[in-house]
Design goal:
Layout lengths: L3 H9 L1 H6 L6 H27 L24 H30 L5 H26 L4 H24 L8 E2 L3 H27 L16 H28 L4 H26 L4 H23 L2 E2 L9 H4 L6
Helix pairs in contact: 3-4, 3-6, 3-10, 4-5, 5-6, 6-7, 6-10, 7-8, 7-10, 8-9, 9-10
């Protein structure tokens, strides 16, 4: 009879129940954040593999794989295995995000900001899974495919911020560089988003539709959209070079300058891959590498911005009334 209250508590609030009985180390929380970040990249790369192998409709419907089967059948063949495998990877991603939420909730002291970031990740995963289903049900509508990729890019942003926050304290952010430099970082982020969005238009109007059947494409000239994408890439490169130079002029911390250097190296590699794939008629392998490069560029840009401020290791004092609410969430 004495176990009943504990059982009820575990059912009503499992995260709080586990947090009362488990205290992960800071290293465990950091590993959970890393796992969520790596899986958010993996889901993009494997999603690209689905499209590049023409397996986008390998499963006929959603949420089932066929009208009569929840899982892939022998009749679906290779394409069905690829598409269904990508769907299953969503559960691995969800598990990684769940691990991060649980680790952040169970850490002592409880860092509410990390828990909130974890739940934002979860919402993005759910929304993107639904949008992925809509993409299948609409026969790989290119605008839905583009939205699917942009939501995944948003997930990478949140997991990157979460990863960085596990390595910081809970104090208020303090700038490490002058205000104009921080504004330059915002311009770099905005331009990178334009670059990524332009990339989805190139994909939506390009030859890799995601299935061998007749798939609707965006009504744009592919070569013209590729040139617009290239112009955006050059703007990002120019801003990245400007950031690298400015950080040296203002004598920014060494780690911040290192992040700007890393961004330049990633952009150089990504640009080279982009031009090679353009002039070689978009071979599937290079397109897949370019998609991975897109993730790395986005992460590198965010890391530069995040390195421009710091948070103290000392946790801000929490009012007693707020502490009393800890067990309620």
């Amino acid at each position: 009879m004495h176990k009943a209250p504990h059982t009820i508590g575990a059912v009503l609030n499992p995260f709080a129940y586990i947090a009362d009985r488990w205290t992960p180390s800071p290293r465990t929380v950091r590993r959970a954040a890393s796992a969520a970040l790596l899986m958010s990249m993996a889901i993009i790369v494997t999603g690209g593999a689905v499209r590049l192998t023409g397996s986008g409709l390998g499963c006929d419907t959603w949420p089932k794989c066929t009208d009569d089967s929840l899982v892939v059948t022998q009749a679906q063949g290779f394409h069905g295995v690829i598409e269904f495998g990508n769907r299953m990877l969503t559960y691995v991603l969800s598990a990684a995000v769940g691990w991060f939420i649980l680790a952040a909730r169970s850490a002592k002291p409880w860092r509410h900001s990390l828990t909130k970031l974890g739940w934002v990740q979860f919402v993005l995963v759910v929304c993107n899974a639904i949008l992925g289903g809509i993409t299948v049900l609409t026969g790989l509508n290119p605008y839905s495919v583009a939205g699917h990729f942009l939501l995944a890019t948003g997930l990478i942003a949140v997991t990157t911020v979460s990863w960085q926050r596990t390595r910081e304290g809970e104090g208020a952010p303090r700038p490490r560089v002058p205000g104009p430099v921080r504004k330059l970082s915002w311009a770099l982020i905005a331009t990178t988003l334009v670059l990524i969005a332009a990339g989805t238009v190139v994909t939506g109007s390009g030859p890799h539709a995601g299935d061998k059947s007749e798939i609707k494409r965006m009504p744009f000239d592919w070569a013209a959209t590729a040139h617009v994408h290239a112009i955006a890439a050059w703007l990002v490169c120019a801003l990245a070079v400007a950031m690298w130079l400015v950080l040296r002029v203002v004598d920014a911390p060494l780690d911040t300058r290192a992040r700007a250097r890393d961004l330049l190296l990633v952009l150089l590699a990504q640009g080279a891959i982009g031009y090679v794939q353009f002039f070689t008629q978009l071979p599937e392998v290079l397109v897949a590498v370019h998609m991975l490069g897109s993730c790395l560029v986005w992460i590198a840009v965010l890391r530069v911005a995040l390195s421009l401020r710091e948070r103290s290791a000392d946790r801000a004092e929490v009012p007693a009334r707020d502490e009393a609410q800890l067990s309620a969430v």
